[in-house]
Each structure stands twice: as structure tokens, then as C-alpha cells.
Amino acid sequence: MERILKRAAAAVIACAVLLTPAVAYAEPSAQTALPAEESQQQEAPAPINPDAEAGIEGLSYEEALQKSYDTQPETNSIAGWPKGPQVYGCAAIVMDMDSGAVLYGKKVDDKHYPASITKLMTALVALENADMDDEVEFSPASIDILRWDYASIGMKPGEILSLKDAMYGMLLASGNEVAYAIAESVGNKMGIGYDGFIQKMNDRAVELGCTGSNWVNANGLHDDLHYTTAHDMALIASELYKHEEFRTVTQTLNYTIGATNLTDETRAVQQNHKMLWPNHSRYYEYCTGGKTGYTDNSRTTLVTMAENGTLRLAAVVLRDNGNVYDDTRAMFDYVFENFSKVMLKEQAKPEEVRSYTEDGAYVLLPEGIDFSSLEHQISITDEREASGKITFYYEGQNVGSADVTLTPEYIEETTGYTNRMDPSGETEHAQGGQEESGFRLPGWLTAVLIVAAVVLILFALVIIRLQIIRAKRRKRAQMKRRRMRQRQQVQRRPQEQRLRTQRNRKR
Q: Which residues form the active site (predicted)?
């Protein structure tokens, strides 16, 4: 038994040695194999100069206004692309929210101060991490940020709203203390607090593909380090629009927040986006939501969503010194009138693509541009499932993306991973290709397996040890019984001799 115990202990050591390389391999793969320069910590954000990026630094108001209007959208320089309208906004974009196609673009990557359209990013993170009936409590810190000229709905320290009511107060009335309280309360629910919520805004933006944003607060009050781009805001708006709760709130014109734990009176809030009001001169029949913004530093900013029954669009205008609603209407009309869907299932598939995930996948093209003239780029999302995303471009302009199932040949050629499929396109069997590029378990799963193996072996050792102890106890008990029998035999011998003597005498 002692030999068994020693062998089991050796097995524990052997398992640890054999499984250690798997953990060492799996840890780096969990970081998505970033290049060395990208895996390093990002540099701290620096203040921006929006006027310099827009080319209007040092100009008078009138000169800057004219210079911005005269700046042509980059999409107007694309061969065969319809000419879009000139707008006063220093940066502007129209994106198809379903395909990601960018149909109109003017300095879409220039950094500008967002003002209250920041609250769309706040709403996205809140809706993804909380429920509409969760409580939002207003701390003294949420009230202390206010000045007399800041948008507010008059909340008090210690008051509590549901997240639903708070969303109306933030998105319709643009309450700055409400945005702070939402970030703080949802952050506390997530266990990361207000600062952690702000960091989550930055992390989520990166996940969406944003490249020029830096968020330092939840409401858009001016900060030199708080900025975004038109393209980033279009990505954020497109993701937020997927949430039914947001669509309900943003299309509401009037809403009444009921009495609270500290206030008996109700609070009435109204929609600030003028394109949603049917009786307003700025009304736009296709408008389905959006968010306004303004500070002295940002000037007017506006995000607008619109649907015409065929397309769902998001328009963003930053640093607009003219009439932002006229600019937005002109951009929407331009897209609705000049672009139409080209269904991908009706076109020849690129050789890398086995099938499109959604039957309704499409790209958006103007009249006169044929699908065959498009280029494409593929990103692999899961090599085991052969899933990926394809983005089509015309003259470098994104005209739409779609989720796809890729061919096994492309997966193997690109990653070295062998993926066999049945004729229906479903994965039938997958095995590793070359050893250095084959499938490896994720690091966390490998670690769990190691711990489980060690626990099982230790459990086996305990059982073996208990068996050894029981065996020793049985052996000691047997020896004890043997000695007792021996003593009894010694004690019986004189008696037996006397009995034999007595029997002999009787004879």
C-alpha cells in the first residue's frame, strides 16, 4: 500500500508537469494575439482642437461658418457616387443601421466635443447592464455637478427613480444629474461604481469599432478630454437602436414622471428633438428618434434615426453652426432618394463564402454601380464554426456588411485550422491542422481541468490513505486476537494437565 501511495503522488506531479505547457500556451491566446505594439497599454488621451481639425481655427464666426459649408463631403469625390448636399456641420455622416454602410460622409473621423449626445452612450451601457425597473438613486455628487444654466429635471439628493423614468428624464429632458445618477447607480449594481461605468463606456465603444472617442463623464458636460467622432456616434446609435426600450423612449413626445420618495409632485418632460413633433416646422415624417446636444465648446450636435419602410438610417452632425435640422433632412433625403438594396443572395458569392447567415443580407448601392465592381474584406469570428463577417467596399467606401459561413478551405488557408463540413454547411467534424496552429483549449478551461484532475487525484490519495490505515488497524486487531488466544492456551494447559492426571488416577 505504501508503494501505491508513492505512485499516486508521482501521478500528481506528472499531471502538473504535462498540463503546464497547455496553460502557458492558452494565456496569450486569450488576448486575441494582438501584435506587440497593440498589446501595450494605450497612451493617455490628449486634448483636441476641433477648430484645427475642421480647418476653421482663427477665423471669424461668419468665415468659419462659410468655410465649413464650403467643405465638400468626402463621399462626393467617389467616382460614380451621387453628389451629396453641403452642410454647415464640421463633421457629418449617414449610416445604414442594419448593414453598416456609410452612404454620406464629411470628415467622419475628426474629433469633436459631443455635448449631450453623450447620453446615448450612457443609455446603451445602462440598458445592457440593468433592468428598466431597477432603482436609480440620486447621490449628493449627482446634484453637485449642476449649475444654474445646466439642463436638469430638479432632482434632490436621496430621491429615487426607476431606470425607466430616469431614461425619460435623461433622453427627453436631457437632465444632466439624471445621466450622472444612472451611471452611478448602474455602476454600483455592476460593482464598479461611477468611474467604472465611465470606463465601461470606453470599453464598449472600442468593442463597437469606435476609433476616435474618449468618454470622461456620462452627460457630456464639457471636458477637454471628452470627445467623439461622427462615425463613432453612428456606430453607437445603430447599436442602441436595437433596444426596444430605447426606441420606445426616444419616440415619446411627452412623459410624466410620478411622485417619488421625497417629492409628491409629478414632473413633466418633453422631447427636445424638433424633427419628431408633427406640428413643428422641422418635423420629418421618417424621423424615429434621436438626441440633441449643445455647449459653447461643442456648438450644436445632433443624432437622428429615421426609417422609410425600406431603410433604417442614423445621421450624425457635429459642431454645426448653421441649422442642424436642415442639414440632417438634406442628408436623409439624399440617401433615401439615391440608394437601394442589392440582395446578396441574388449575387455571385465570393469564393471564400459558403453561405450568408441571414437570408435578407444586402449592400446599398446607387444607380449605375454594379455589384461586380465591389471589393470585400473578411474577418473570421470563430474558426471552429467557420463563421465570419464580410464587408463590401466600392472605391474604399463601406457599402454594407454581412455575417457569413466561410469555406473550410479559406479557414484552413488563413488559420491552419481544418474544418470539415457536411453538404448542408453544418460543421461535421473538426480537427487540428499543424501542431503549432491547431485547436487549443482556452486558458480558463485548461486551468479548470488541471484543478479538477488534481482534486480527483488528491481525493484518490485520501481514499488510499484511509485504506492503508484500516489495513493497519485490521492487522493490529488480528495480532491482538492471536496474542489473546496464545495467552488463553497457556492458561488452559495447567488445567488440561490436571484433568489428564485425574483421569489417569481413576483408571
A: 116, 119, 174
| DSSP annotation string for 339-406 | EEEEEGGGSPPPTTEEEESSTT-EEEEETT--GGG-EEEEEEEETTTTEEEEEEEETTEEEEEEEEEE
Answer yes or no: 164 catalytic: no
Give the H/E segment covering residue 436: none
398 closest CA partner among 92, 196, 147, 104 = 104
Which residue out of 106, 119, 200, 341 is catalytically annotated? 119
User: pLDDT of 449-463, one tens digit each?
Assistant: 888 888 888 887 888
Establish whether 291 is an annotated binding residue: yes
Which is the catalytic residue, given 68, 99, 116, 213?
116
**pLDDT tens per residue, range 399-413:** 999 999 999 999 999
Q: Tell me, yes or no, if 340 is annotated catalytic.
A: no
Given 68, 174, 238, 298, which residue is catalytic?
174
Active site residue 389: no
Torsion of CA 431, 434, 436, 439, to 10 degrees: -10
Count of CB atoms situated within 10 Å of the CB of 144: 10
Query: How far is 275 from 128, CA to CA, in rounded Å?
Result: 27
